[in-house]
Automatic annotation (TrEMBL):
GO terms for molecular function: nucleic acid binding. Pfam families: UPF0102 (PF02021). NCBIfam families: PRK12497.1-5 (NF009151), YraN family protein (TIGR00252). It comes from the Bacteria. This is UPF0102 protein ABB55_13445.
Amino acid sequence: MTRPTADPSRVSAYRWGLSAETRAAWLLRLKGYAILDRRFRAAGGEIDLVARRGRTVVFVEVKARATLDAALEALDDRTARRIAAAAEIWIARRPALQDFDQRFDLVAVVPRRWPHHMPDAFRPRA
């Protein structure tokens, strides 16, 4: 029995996404954030990075695109709602952090440039 081969373009996109998340995590560390979780998955959503600085827990969406504008435009309301749903589950599993402030950030990653961090980039709507 032979294994099906993965589509090379999908493999490349997956690797680019992992690289972008790693670059975003390093940028946040350099800015004084502690990375608490990566690639958290819960029913209905996923969070790329969860970080903490002081008494603020930050849920970070990483968007890797060819241009900064494309990365900034890639976050839509549906994605924001999915991140918010996963964030509720993440925080519910950590009672010690439930009283901390929460924020939703975006890190845009484009080729040959430093990642662009946008604190408080979005507020999910119910």
